[in-house]
Structure formats: C-alpha cells, structure tokens
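During the second year of the project, the team shifted from modelling isolated chains to modelling whole assemblies. The rationale, set out in the original proposal, was that interfaces cannot be judged from single-chain predictions alone. As a representative example for this report, we include one of the complexes processed in the last quarter. Its constituent sequences, exactly as entered into the pipeline, are reproduced here:
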Amino acid sequence: MKKLRIGLVGAGRMGAFHAETIEKRLSGAELYAVADPVSGAAEKLIHTLGSSAKAYDNPLDMFKDSGVDGVVIASPARTHAENIIRAAQNGKAVFCEKPMAVTIEEADRVIQTVNEYNVPLQVGFNRRFSKDFKSAHHEIVQGDLGTPQLLRSLTRDPVLADPAPVPEWTIFLETLIHDFDVLNYLNPGALPIEVYAVADALVRPDFKERGFLDTAVVTIKYDNGAIATAEANFQAVYGYDVRAEAFGSKGMMTIGSIRESNMTRYNKDGVSYNTLRYDQHLLHDAYVEELASFVNAVQNNEKTAVGGEEARMALLIARACIESVMQKKPIQIEHTVSNLV
Amino acid sequence: MKKLRIGLVGAGRMGAFHAETIEKRLSGAELYAVADPVSGAAEKLIHTLGSSAKAYDNPLDMFKDSGVDGVVIASPARTHAENIIRAAQNGKAVFCEKPMAVTIEEADRVIQTVNEYNVPLQVGFNRRFSKDFKSAHHEIVQGDLGTPQLLRSLTRDPVLADPAPVPEWTIFLETLIHDFDVLNYLNPGALPIEVYAVADALVRPDFKERGFLDTAVVTIKYDNGAIATAEANFQAVYGYDVRAEAFGSKGMMTIGSIRESNMTRYNKDGVSYNTLRYDQHLLHDAYVEELASFVNAVQNNEKTAVGGEEARMALLIARACIESVMQKKPIQIEHTVSNLV
Amino acid sequence: MKKLRIGLVGAGRMGAFHAETIEKRLSGAELYAVADPVSGAAEKLIHTLGSSAKAYDNPLDMFKDSGVDGVVIASPARTHAENIIRAAQNGKAVFCEKPMAVTIEEADRVIQTVNEYNVPLQVGFNRRFSKDFKSAHHEIVQGDLGTPQLLRSLTRDPVLADPAPVPEWTIFLETLIHDFDVLNYLNPGALPIEVYAVADALVRPDFKERGFLDTAVVTIKYDNGAIATAEANFQAVYGYDVRAEAFGSKGMMTIGSIRESNMTRYNKDGVSYNTLRYDQHLLHDAYVEELASFVNAVQNNEKTAVGGEEARMALLIARACIESVMQKKPIQIEHTVSNLV
Amino acid sequence: MKKLRIGLVGAGRMGAFHAETIEKRLSGAELYAVADPVSGAAEKLIHTLGSSAKAYDNPLDMFKDSGVDGVVIASPARTHAENIIRAAQNGKAVFCEKPMAVTIEEADRVIQTVNEYNVPLQVGFNRRFSKDFKSAHHEIVQGDLGTPQLLRSLTRDPVLADPAPVPEWTIFLETLIHDFDVLNYLNPGALPIEVYAVADALVRPDFKERGFLDTAVVTIKYDNGAIATAEANFQAVYGYDVRAEAFGSKGMMTIGSIRESNMTRYNKDGVSYNTLRYDQHLLHDAYVEELASFVNAVQNNEKTAVGGEEARMALLIARACIESVMQKKPIQIEHTVSNLV
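Output from the structure prediction step:
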C-alpha cells in the first residue's frame, strides 16, 4: 500500500514529536511537508530529522500542495479550527491536536466542513490510544463495570514555566479537555447534563488578576446518573500525572501510573522508584498509536477512532466550565439535536 | 494506674466491637456497664463477651452510676448529642461515635455542656488513628507537602442492605462526615469556606422519591485556596473502600488500601489479591487506637485527640452539603467566632 | 473459661513482647510468673508491665509451681530443649520459641518427653500465623497452586549489631529455621530429601575466621520434585524483610511486604514509602496470633497448630545445611520412620 | 547517514520480529536480505512485511552478498557460532541471538574470528536493553547498592508446547543463559567461581528419561563474595515472567513486572490485573533497543554494548551447570587468561 504523505502544521514541541513518529515510527506514512510561520522552524525540524520533506511558511500553501494526502495539525489551539477547515476544503484528511476548536460555533463549522468535503477527521485525544484507558473502556463497553456511578479523571502537568503567554481558560480548553473526553469515553453513550467548576491560581497566585488559572476541579453530572470529577493542576513536582478511576454497580477500575520503570529501590530511607516527567514519555506509545490509527483509517477508508462529535462533546463541557466559573454556579448543558448527531 | 471503668451505650454492631476492645484489647480500661433500650441486648452482649459488666435498659440510669468513669456512646446518630449532654452533666468522660450531633445547634449545646461540666470529650473520627492517615497528617504538618492545593477523600461502603430504615441525609451526616474530617485533618489550620454537593440514589433509584441518597460528590473550597472533593457510595461490591489523596506545592500523598493481605496470586487469569469487606477489618487497629487514646487522655488529664470543635467543623460541611443539594447551588460557610474557638 | 496461667522463661527482647501479649493482648491467659536467671530481669519486666506476676531466678523452680498451667519459653536457643523437657516433666503445656532444639538427638528427646507426659507443645514458627503465609498455605492445600515446583523463602534482618556473641551456625539454626518451616508449610506433605548450602560472612568478613556466617543460600529438593531456595542475610539496611514465593503447575503466589503503611509519597525525587524495621512490627499480629492459638488449643484440648514433628523437620534441613557447608557438597536427608511419625 | 543494510538469518518467530523491527521500527537500518534454508520461509516473511528484501536459501550465500553491511542471526542456537564465523569471514558486522555458542571451544573460535576479521559483534542479551535492568545496572555501577551480596534472576516461559524437539540442556544453554548474563550484569566486574545446579522435568516428567529438563535452580558464587540464584521453568501459566533482585550492603533493587497495563480491576472477587503472555510483548522495547544499539554502534564505529566476552562468561556458567547436574556436585570455574580478556 502506498505510504500516506503527511503535511505537518507546526514545528514546535508536539509537532516535532509527531514528525519523528511519521518519519521513524510509522511504516504506512511519510513526512512530505512541514509548515510553520516561524521563520526557519520548518527547515530546522526537517534537518534535525534528516528528512527530505518540503518546508512551508504558510500552512494554507501546504494545504494546496497536491502531494499532501493528509495533514497533522499541531499549531496553537486557537488556530486549530481554521486550519482544519482550510485543509478540509482542499480535500485533505485531517489529524488535529486537541482541542478541535475553542468555541462551539467553531466546532460546528469544523464538523460541517469536514462533512461537506467528506474528509476524514481525527482529533488528538491520545489517552484513548493508551493501553490503560483503552482496556478500561473496552471492559466498560462489555459491561464489566455495570452502570457507571462515579468517575474521575485528572491531569497534572509537571512544571509551570511562564504563565504570561498562557491564553485565558487554557486549563479547561487545552488541559481538562483531555479529562472531559476521558470521562465521556469511560461512560460510553451517556450525555453530560450539568457542570460545576471551581478554579484558582494556586501555583502562581501572582498571575490570578490577569485571569490566569492553574488549578481546577470540575463536577459533571451525566444523564445516566453518573457523577464525575475532573481535576487539573499545572505543577506536580513529582512528574506528569494522568490517571482515572471508574466506579460502577459491578466494581471499580483504576487507570494510569506515573512509574518510570519496573525497578524499585529499597534503601535506608525506605522504598522508592522513579517517575515519568514528560507527556511524551508517559504517553509515548499512545501518541504513536493515535497517528498509526489515523493513517490506517485513511488508507482503508474507515471511520477514524475519535472524530468531530467526540471533540465537540468534550468542548461543550469545557465551555460550561468557563460559564460556571464566571457565574459561580452549576451550568446545565442543553443537548440540541446537533449535539447528538 | 487504676483501670478506667467504661459504661457503653449501644449494644449494636459498633457497640459490640467497642465492648470487645474495652474488655480484651485495652489494658487500661474495663467494661463496667452496658446500656441498650432494646430488651435483652445489653445482657446478650455481656454474656457473649464472658464479661461481668452490669446491664442497663436506660442509658440515663447508667450515666448516674457512680461506678462509671467514662462512657462510650455507640447509639443511633440522632441520639448522640443528647447522650453526650446527659453523660457530661453526670461528670463522665465521653467518647462518642461520629457524628457528635446532627445540627449545629445541637453541636453548640454539646460543646457548651462539656465545657461547663469540664469533662473530656472525644469524637469517633477513627481515620485519624489509622497509621496511613496519621503519617500523612504528620508529614503535612511538618511541611513535606508544601501548601495543600487539591485534596480528595472517599468512603465506599461494601453493601447496601435495606434502604428503608436509613434516615434522611445519612450520606452526609454519617458517612461523608468522616471524609470531611479527613479533609480538615489533611489541611490543618485551613477553614472550609464553600461547599457544593450533588447526590443521587444510583444504587437504589427506587428509594429516591423517599429522599434516600446513596451516592454523593462534594466540592469544598478552603480559605488557603485548597480545593477538595469528597465522594461516597453505599455499595462497592469489591469491599470497604476508604482512601484519600493530598496534593500540594511539594508533591502528593496517597492514603489507604483495600488489600486484605500481602499474598498475591498469579494464575491463568492474571494477577489478583483479596480485599477487605468490612470496616472493622479495614480499620481494626484504628478503632482500637482511638479508644486507647481516649482512655489514655482521660487517665492522664490530657486533651483528647479529636474533640467537639473538630466534630462541629465537619458537621458544618455536612450541613452545607444538605443545603447545597436542596438549593442546587454552592453554599458559603460563615465562620462566626464560635466556629473558631 | 478459666484463664490459662502462664509462666514465662526469659525476660529478654522476645520474652518481653510475649509477656506484654499475655498480659494485654490475650483475654484467655494471664501472666502468672516470669523466670530469668539474670538477676533482677524478671522483676524489672513485671514492673514495667504493671503486672502482679511472680518472679523466679530459676526456670526449674517455676516449672514446679502448681499455679502455672503452661509455659512460654523465650530463653536462648541452646536452652530450649532442656527447658521444654523439664516443663513437660512437670506436666506443663509448652510454647517454645524456635528452634525447639539444636540437634536431632535433642529434638527426639523433646518429642519423646512431651509424648510420654502427654503435654501440648507448640513451637514458635510465627509466620504460620501471619495472614499472608496462612492464606497462601490454605490455597495451596486446596489445590490452587497445583503441584509445587519452585519455592523460595527469605529472611533478612535489619541490622547486625555485634557478631561476637552470635553462636556458631546461628544463621541456619535460628534464622533460616523459619524459612525451612515456611518452605515445608508451603509444600504440604512433601519431604525434603537433599540440601545444598553456601554461606559466608559478607556483612562482617572480619569475623569469618571465628566461624561467623551472616549470609546464606540454601537449595532444597523435595520428594515431590519441588526445588526450593532459602536465603538469609543479617543486615538489610532497608528493614526487616521476610518474603516467600511459591510456584506450581497452576500459577504462583508471592507472600510478604516490608511496607510500613498504606501512605505513599510522591515528590521531586519520585515515589517512596516507609518500611518496617523490626520483627515485632512486621510480624506483630502473627506473634500475638500464635500465642492466642496456643492458649486456645490448651484450653480446648486440641492439637497445637505446629508441634514437635514440624520443628524436627525444619531442624533436619538446618543440620543438613551445616553438614553441606562443612563438606562443600549436597547432603541427602534420610527419613527414618521416626521422622515421619 | 546511510542506512545499514541488514541480512537476516532465520525467518522464524524471533527472526520475524527482528525483521519487522529493522523494516519498521529503526530509521537507521533497512532489511536488505533474508536467508532461511526452509523452502519459501524467507520469501513469505518478506512478503508479509511488504518488503523488497532479497531472499536466500543459504545464509552463506547471503554472507557473500556485497550489498549486506551487517547480519542479524536468528537461526537455531546450535548454528549460531558457525554463522557468526562465516559472516565475520565475509567482513560483516554481526548481531547474533543468544547463545553465541554452545561450547567454550566454539565461543573461543567465534571471539578469535571476529577479532581477526575485526568485525563488530553483538550478542542478543536483550534484558540489558530493558529500562528496568538497565537502570538497576546503572545504579549498581555508581555504587548505590554497595557491595552486592545476594542476587537472583529468573525466567519462566509461559507455555511448554512440545518437549520432543527441545535439544538437550536447552534450559541452561538457551533459557538460563539470559539469567547468567543478567547476574553478571548486576554484579559488574565480579567473576563467577562456583556453580551448583539442580534440574528436573516437573512440567513434563514423561520426557525426563530422554534427558528433557524444564525446571532448574542454580547457585553461583562470585569472587566478590556475592551468592546468586538463577531459576527457570518452562510453563508459567500466568505469563512470561522475567524478574531479578539484587541485594547489597546499601540496600536492594527489584527488577521486572509481568503487568500488562496500568489498568486494575476491583470487583466482587477482589482486585486483579492482566499479565503479559509473550516475550515479544514483555520485552518489546528491549528487543528494538538492542538492534538500535547495534546499528548505532556499527554506524559510528563504536564498541557494541554486549560482545563476545560477555557471552562467553555466561556460557561458562551454563556449561558448569551441565557439569554440575551430571556430577551432582558444585563445579569450580577456572578463569584462564583468555576468560578475562
């Protein structure tokens, strides 16, 4: 089968990892082009990889390149929707980092466009491709947990460098969006109906006045009765912590571990082991797996594993969180027909 | 040192365990009397233990018995406050199962009375006496966690027998009251300032109309910025599950395990181990330790480890939960001077 | 039921713990007398406990005291056999710390005497009373492991203070004797038939010339084919480490943990938890349970849980180890009829 | 940098995995040819991979192909030495699955030949490339364990299909050879000086008469005093179990886990999780890493991570085991100068 020629948007930290995956870890794809508006960034990444990909300054130009079969979008969150739409209009299959969009209006336009142009779309909810989360989902779907009653998902980033450039509401739109998707994934078929969120700047209280938030706890009620919490913090000094818990009428499942290896030390101070400090280490295989899944879906004309509807559902919760923090009260989520398509 | 002669109120499940502890596991105390209004219940317990304690039908009579040095109250929750007050008025040292009271007014009367009659009071927050919780508290007090930012405590009972006799709001007043105390204990010196609670009857939805609730999730904001969640469910088919998590600027601590023993099986189905199914097994040593601590405090004229103020603080959260569920919104906790004494 | 009046031999570290157990942790027994040839030692222990027990300098005098129902022997290992025999000749029920004897001849005399005088004898193989080991044994007996094929048991003491007073062959006769009994316990019904032992002074090589050994590894072949290893070292800086592993045709079981509590720390250095540093902490409940079991057996005229035959079987392995180290080769164990009674 | 063109010998189970690694998981190498004497085997593997590699029936022909830069040998163990020698004589860099040879004479010829023809040689001791083992080794080298005193390594294969074709002494030469290398790796710089081995056919006793052995326990003494055990069994019904333990004057390290994912189930039967059933799953990353390391060493003219001397040292132990089983006694290992080069 012919290799899928990928055009990558964004040569930053995440883009570089995806580029390396496409170039070195996937047999079904090749890195055909990289676009980044930062001068020289695309070229530098291509050089580092020893790749022969083309470099573009403008993603829109790359989208018009007929050599590109599919695009991987790893640009800043606020450009995602626009990039997806333009790529779709040029008939490209699209893999986009989360979030797919930052407003519901944008999300609706994205979904409408990919439907209109009939292109595959996959959103980067990588935890769905982690062995831990996937096996829990699988067992929940087959009924092993019974009816879900209590759910929990959390994300704790290892270190908060500079709060200054962090866009407003990032904790909901970019961090907890993962957890909202996880909770939906662990409660398959259920709809979130009410959200209550509290958030604060506890790591960097000096940035709170500018609207910066680094800590949040969210309560979500689902239409099947399940009550979920999502929790995030931007500075876990012990590493990159991603875990979940699902409790139902037939038991519980716990998901995730921050352990670096299966080597454990016993010494005069007690027992200890090392932790993973970086998302690309903790979720390495899941990052690779999601791209492999995308490439495979495109090549075989199959439905992608996580598409626009799932991304919109997670975004609905994130937007309700923002509303809840602003109004200091629980927010109902109305599910119009379009939510449910 | 002379043994402390204990009069026990309540010969039920928990009373029986405390009686056995007093009789067999504590060297500093003896079971002097048992009072239970259920005909024959006191006598039966005394007989089972092979004890020579006196039997009373009416706790009030027992409180007047000059042979009694201290009382242990294990009667139904709604009688606690009245029993404490009457015992205090008779000059008895009092250990009372949680909750100390079910309304703030009651709690205030209890605190006022024990102060007036100058008797020791200890409330049965047994988790404070578990090695797991105690060591976490100790390290938090000495600063190892830094500033607490996220806290979690949960209680899942193993089986819900008959919902019919369960009094209204039991999940907050009798179950989660433990978690509220744990959260306060893990965030020492901080005050809860806002509470949001959601609750439902998910185990037995058929009892929801009568006001029965078996599942709840609570969010608590503290005045030091920490955000806590407490979670309860009345039927964890895998056993009696009591855990907590504390996250702060210097790291995280996890507390609790449902493991029955350190024997692990590996067979064709994978790896497995047994769980504890009963609070008196999971918290066996903590139940003994709290009574030992009470007896020791009384004998040495020391302050008890957990008294009326701590119990009132947990109750404030429980009452705010009830308010939150009724009003479907977050509730502020006002701390009057009396809260803070 | 009348309390069993216990006469304790030995007021040292282990004797003191047993005394406290008898006095405070067992409802069916009382500490009636303590005998220790060290001047003032018995009195001091009795005083510390606030007990009203009698003090004896000479155990033999105590054995003649008609007030004594049973004795607990916690004197130095080389006096065990003689003490058991004298106590038995005075009609006392006997609980004796391991080893029951240090030679097979002694062991045979002990067994013969207790049979002749028809007194109950229990030997202090406390691991059989630990929840971890007991549940493994139970599941093995009911066939869950299939046929045992590989077994392992280890003992690592936390700290080697002064090697000077340690009697020759202590590592086999006093330390590994526990492991030999564990291996027999986990391979029920099988007979050890060949032993190979290597041993060295690795913690304190400067004492090797005097015959001191602090590290040993033993291989044991059983008549059902199972091959076992036992391992000991006198200085595990991380605590008191006692574990076992049983592997058979249907799976594996692992037994034991050095964890102090279920509180786990996550901080900038990784994940850590505390360890237990002392046998009386690690095996606290097993030490209590073995005495409770002994008292119960005596009071109810039941067979004790672990008697002379089991102790002799473990000793056979220990003696074969000594032979193996001296001859630097594997040693066959001959099972005469008397072994198998 | 130019890709290393690899010629693979052996299209069986392990060869197929290495082929896939070369083709799909390594960016620095390409699969240039496959040789397998079984008719059609090479072609079939090439086809399955969608590769354009050449197929050979005779490895010797492939060794003469000037397009081949390096060879990966995954043929039956008894052909390894001959294949290495022939490949070296044709100037090829060689990666060979363990064991490098099955006799010391063969091993010496291999080492002599690769030295003479000055070609790089790496032997497939994949555990050295597992994160778990590597981090333990690293910390031992930097002194964190102190002086090693007790070591353990074990291999338990998940299922014994047909014992009939298993060559004599396979358990030592092909299975435990891994553990011998692990023990050497965890005791860096020390020399094995005495070996005692017991072995039996416990899984398939019906094959014992033909010399088949499926269970073994080995004791190894090192010249630094450390005492090691190695243990193997051919049928662990719970999965592919590879673990090690290193104990020294400063503590202990445990290595390895059979856990499949970080998802844990809690249900009415207790707690459980899945296990890994297959070496290529358990050691997936280590298998890839060892080839990546080989390719990198060859391309950069660096010493390979594990060469002929290490392989010969492990083989010395394996041969001593065979001797020990035959003679039923401990065997001394003489280290001639050539051992120590």
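Chain B has two domains: 4-119, 128-281+313-340. The first helix of chain B runs from residue 13 to 25.
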